[in-house]
Amino acid sequence: MSTTDEFLSAASSLLGERGFTTDADLIEPWLTDWRGRFTGRALGMASPASTQEIAGLMKLCAAHRVPLVPQGGNSGMSGGATPDETGKAIVLSLRRMDKVRSFDVDARQITCDAGLILQTLHETVEAERLRFPLTLGGKGSATIGGLISTNAGGTQVLRHGSMRAQVLGIEAVMADGRVFDSLRPLKKDNRGFDLKQLLIGSEGTLGIVTAATLRLLPALADRAVLWAGLGDIRDARKLLLHAERVAGDALEGFEVMPRHSLEAVLAHSANARAPLQDHHEWNALIELTADASGADALPALAQSLLESAFEEGLVADATIARNEAQAEEFWMLRDEIAPAERAIGPAMQHDISVPVPDMAEFVADAVPKVEKAFPGTTAVAFGHLGDGNVHFHVLAPEGAVPGEWELGQGKAISAFVHDEVTAWNGSISAEHGIGQLKRDELARLGDPAQLAIMRQVKRALDPAGLLNPGKLVPLETGTEPL
Q: Are 376 and 398 in contact (CB under 8 A)?
């Protein structure tokens, strides 16, 4: 029996029929990332039901030198959960590990498996009048482990921070099969390195997150959703500063979108309606929230914010959602930008950040630069202005052939955009991770000292390079994937 056959037999015995398969038809749906950019092959697919089973599997992988690619909801944006084309790795699905382990309502903490779906978490805590302060468009498929592994963001980062800020404790299986148990949340703990922070955002390259303890907040009693029409992206920055001064901690979201994006959504969605009568070059979507202690004052606060914004000449027109249904309609206009763009044609999509005070100037500078350098393209920037993160998309010229354009001019566009971002002291990945999509660009543009440290940490914790090889950590010239 070959070494590979020995491994497959041992893995099948360890995990059982439900937990391990080599059936190509069952594995095939999980070999391509959801954006369709990367497709690989796999030796098999493991679906363990417990941390102990993952630990046992990891020991088998270490003994037989079999690489392993962790996968949650397979909804990542950078190909970080897709195996390569060698077929030597196994896909490790965390989807069977979807239980709530403990829930302390009074302490506002919940401990859950890594495979728990974000929407399920929301529903679970909402039943106890609590909330988990992170949401995103893929909440129906994204898993807690995937969100931790990519340090996901979303629309509430402005007030509550990214996934890193929500994690109080972590359990993970390391490359040698040992279980790192740091689930117990301690307010103060000075026993050396905070190792859970090293695992958050590591995209499964240092360890496999199997569970987490998360912080919760009191449920919202009310929210006010505002829509403002603006003449310039710089006006949006001024409005943001004004909103922060007037609303303080009640300001939970501040999203921007250009006229092109709004018109694309209105054309694409039959149910979409423009919030304002006139068209404006830029639009801001603002959300104020309050728990029970501040709910009564929220309507007056929202009204005061708009009135003072008009008085200071910060907005051309604005409105407040009359009810929850209209508030959802406003947010739908933001959430439908990506599908509306896809209906137009191919685009190069960039998840970038620059220092918050510079974002408006960056957008104003970069959009015309890109369109001049690549005639016929349309550059649009939309998203989380409040935390310095916009989605900078460049739509292809009319008549561009999907697939061919991305691999040709599209690559040159991405390099151009990333160079601009770097010149503004920004990041080429704000909330979607590096994966394999941006790994080579990180190697090209990253700080040499930072890259060297990342490689050293990877080698220290995963010397055989079995954990999600070829992702996140850029390769050194002439070396095998880390």
A: yes
